[in-house]
Design brief:
The structure holds 2 protein chains of 2 kinds. Chain A contains 4 helices and 5 strands. Chain A has helices at about 15-30, 35-55, 55-60, 110-115, and strands spanning about 5-10, 60-70, 75-80, 120-125, 130-135. The model of chain A has no long low-confidence stretch (mean pLDDT about 95). In chain B, α1 packs parallel to α2 (about 55-70). In chain B, about 40% of the residues lie in helices and about 30% in strands. In chain B, α3 links the parallel β5 (about 75-80) and β6. In chain B, strands 1, 2, 3, 4, 5 and 6 form a 6-stranded mixed β-sheet that branches. Chain B is an alpha/beta fold. Chain B has a single domain (about 1-110), classed as STAS domain (Transcription Regulator spoIIAA, 2-Layer Sandwich), CATH 3.30.750.24. The radius of gyration of chain B is 13 Å and the shape is globular. Classes of the chains: A alpha+beta, B alpha/beta. The interface of A and B includes residues 105 and 111 of A.
Chain lengths: ~140, ~110
């Protein structure tokens, strides 16, 4: 089985929950394991939260997501029209080891994406940031 | 998201249900702040019915853990589903927060 779905999100509107709904629907029709749906939702949520939070500085207006589910893997492409930002190299590393009193609050989103996805690639094309995530369906 | 608070023995048990993400993390933060402010008991956060949490929710949990530690109150989280347990480990929260498999085990560590 395979399926593809595109969702466009206006970063200035509270539209991120539409991503979770789209993932749920694809998980159901494509028979994903529940953990896979959780992880894909989380990755999209973290990317979406970052884009919404930084949209003013990044001068971005939208986020376009293409979900592609195949038997072996799920591939997600996330496109935004903001200034160039490569989250695989430009974001500070998360602190996941300090003691509780020293642990900084925040900065975990990209760390979670990198840990949960099997592949995270960035490219800049036609004035857009394109992030491609791949998650294998069998561990 | 739904938060229910009850007292059990010497603990305040906060049961968190549903989904926590950026759309309701502020509400979750306010709710847990209010629930814990009226008491000086240790806190058990029971996640048995928590279906989903993103880093926006993890932020609230870390803030809560820091605030309880600074007032010398115990804080235990229990009954995490597998994918949520995974993200706690990836985030290194299992190194700084006491995580137990069940509410009974969590309450037992509060007695100690």
């Amino acid at each position: 089985m395979s399926a593809t779905r595109s969702i466009q999100i206006d970063l200035g509107a509270p539209e991120l929950p539409r991503l979770a709904v789209a993932v749920e629907e694809m998980a159901e029709t494509e028979g994903w394991m529940p953990d896979l749906a959780f992880q894909i939702q989380l990755a999209l949520d973290e990317i979406g939260d970052n884009l919404v939070e930084h949209r003013a500085q990044a001068q971005s207006t939208y986020m376009a997501v293409i979900l592609n589910s195949q038997d072996q893997a799920v591939t997600i492409e996330v496109v935004d029209d903001g200034i160039a930002f490569d989250p695989t190299t430009d974001a500070p590393a998360a602190d996941v080891t300090s003691a509780l009193e020293d642990r900084p609050i925040g900065g975990l989103g990209l760390h979670l994406i990198r840990a949960l996805m099997d592949k995270v690639d960035y490219r800049r094309e036609d004035g857009r940031n394109i992030l491609t995530l791949v998650k294998h369906r069998t561990p | 998201m739904n938060v229910n608070t009850e007292t059990s023995g010497n603990s305040l048990v906060v049961a968190l249900d549903g989904r926590v993400d950026s759309s309701n993390a502020a509400e979750f933060n306010a709710t847990i702040e209010n629930a814990t402010a009226d008491s000086d008991l240790g806190v058990v956060l029971d996640c048995e019915n928590l279906q989903y949490i993103s880093s926006a929710g993890l932020r609230v949990i870390l803030t809560t853990a820091k605030s309880l530690q600074s007032s010398q109150r115990k804080f235990v989280i229990c009954t995490l589903s597998n994918p949520i347990q995974d993200i706690f480990v990836i985030s290194g929260f299992d190194q700084i927060i006491n995580i137990q498999g069940s509410r009974a085990e969590a309450l037992a560590t509060m007695e100690a």
